[in-house]
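Hi Y.,

Following your request, here is the sequence exactly as I used it, all 96 residues.
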Amino acid sequence: MAEDRPVRLDLSLQEAEALHAALEVLLETAPANPNLDRPHRLLAWRTLAAKTGTGLTARLADLARQSDTLEQYEAVRDEELGPILDGLESAENRDP
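Below is the corresponding structure, written out as tokens. Let me know if you'd prefer a different format.
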């Protein structure tokens, strides 16, 4: 089927981050669209793989580069960094 054929994109890191941010806004504000969740997660994974840095960002980027699939990345990320990421995302750790 034509729907199952992959589409490859070649975006700069800046373009990928802008697209990811736009998808995030859509997911947070628009009516639920299940077709956007996976592309949003794929873009986050591949964007991370293109990044460098230090600390947590560097560790996430390394995990993203080592993973062959989105599902593998998410499983390894959750296993290795889940408690840290959960703590960072908790409401009490957010700025008012």
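The chain has a mean pLDDT of 87.

Thanks again,
Q.
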